[in-house]
Design a protein that fits this description.
The protein has 12 helices and no strands. It is an all-alpha fold and 291 residues long.
C-alpha cells in the first residue's frame, strides 16, 4: 500500500490556473511599461539635442530649450531635500528610539499617513496661501520647495522608520551594554545599518519631486529664464521657476506635441537614472553593512 507523502507534488488544476494568471499579470505590467516608455522615446528622442538641453524658449532666436527648466528642477530638488531630509530622519529617530509607545506616537504616525494621502493640488493651494501670500514669497522656487517639503516629509519619515525597525535589537542592547550613550549608538550603529532604507526613501522623494506638477503650478510659477550673473543664481530661488513637468504641461496646452514628448523623454531618463541610483546605493550599503 502506497502512502502519499505531504512533500509529494500533486497536480491541481487551480494551482496551474493561478500560476498562469500571475505570470500573465507580470507580463502585462512589463509590456505596459515597455509600451509607454517605447512610445515616449520614439516620439521624444528625435527632439532631444544639445540645443534643446542648453537653450531657453526664444521667439526672437527661434529656439525652444529646457535649460532653464532643468536648472529650476535642480533648485527645487536641492532645497526641498535640504529641508525635508533632516526633519524626516530626525522625526523617525524620535518616533522609533525616543518616544514611548502611546497615543502621541499613534497620532503622529496617523498624521504622517494622512499627509501622504492628501492630493497634491491641495498642497499647492495651501502653499500658495501660506508660503506665497502669508510669508509674501509669491510665485517662487522657494515657495515650491517649501510646499514639496510638506509632501515628501511623510515619505522620508516612514521609510526611515521602517529602516530603523529592521536593525536587530541586539545591536542596540550590545552598544548600550558596553557603555555607549544612546545618541552615540544611534549615530554610529543604527543609522549606518539603516542607511540603505534611508537612501531609498530620499531617492523616492527625489522621484516624486521630479514628477510633481499640480502643486508647483500654484507655487513655483512657470519662469524659464537662466540667471545672467553669479549673484543671480542665489536670487533665483526667490523668482518664479517652472520645472520640467510644468513646461511639459504648458507645451501640451499649446499643442506643441513634439516639444512635449522631448521633455517627457528627458523626464523618463531622469527617473530611470534615479531608479538605477537607488539600486546601486542600496546594494553598496548592504555590502558595507555585511562587511
Amino acid at each position: 500500500m502506497t502512502h502519499n507523502s505531504i512533500l509529494e507534488k500533486k497536480f491541481r488544476l487551480s494551482d496551474h490556473i493561478l500560476k498562469a494568471l500571475i505570470n500573465l499579470s507580470a507580463a502585462f505590467s512589463i509590456l505596459l511599461l515597455v509600451g509607454i516608455m517605447g512610445y515616449v522615446f520614439v516620439r521624444g528622442i528625435p527632439q532631444v539635442s544639445w540645443q534643446f538641453l542648453t537653450t531657453v524658449p526664444s521667439t526672437i532666436k527661434g529656439t525652444f530649450g529646457v535649460a532653464g527648466n532643468i536648472l529650476n528642477t535642480l533648485y527645487i530638488i536641492i532645497i526641498t531635500l535640504l529641508i525635508a531630509t533632516p526633519l524626516g530622519v530626525g522625526s523617525a529617530i524620535y518616533l522609533n528610539e525616543y518616544a514611548k509607545p502611546g497615543k502621541l506616537v499613534r497620532l503622529i504616525e496617523f498624521t504622517t499617513e494622512t499627509l501622504s494621502g492628501i492630493p497634491s493640488i491641495i498642497f499647492g493651494l495651501f502653499g500658495m496661501v501660506f508660503f506665497g501670500r502669508t510669508f509674501r514669497l509669491g510665485y517662487s522656487i522657494l515657495t515650491g520647495a517649501l510646499t514639496l517639503t510638506l509632501m515628501v516629509l511623510p515619505l522620508i519619515t516612514r521609510n526611515t522608520q521602517e529602516a530603523l525597525k529592521t536593525v536587530p535589537a541586539s545591536y542596540r542592547s550590545g552598544a548600550l551594554g558596553i557603555g555607549a550613550t544612546k545618541w552615540y549608538m544611534i549615530r554610529t550603529i543604527l543609522l549606518p545599518s539603516a542607511m540603505p532604507g534611508i537612501i531609498t526613501g530620499i531617492i523616492l522623494a527625489i522621484g516624486r519631486i521630479v514628477g510633481e506638477s499640480a502643486a508647483l503650478l500654484f507655487t513655483a510659477g512657470s519662469g524659464y529664464l537662466l540667471p545672467k550673473t553669479a549673484a543671480g543664481f542665489f536670487k533665483k530661488i526667490l523668482e518664479s521657476g517652472g520645472t520640467l513637468t510644468i513646461q511639459l504641461y504648458l507645451s501640451m496646452s499649446k499643442a506643441q506635441y513634439d516639444a512635449a514628448f522631448g521633455i517627457a523623454a528627458v523626464l523618463l531618463i531622469i527617473v530611470l537614472c534615479i531608479n538605477f541610483l537607488t539600486k546601486i546605493l542600496s546594494g553598496k550599503f548592504d555590502v558595507t553593512r555585511q562587511k
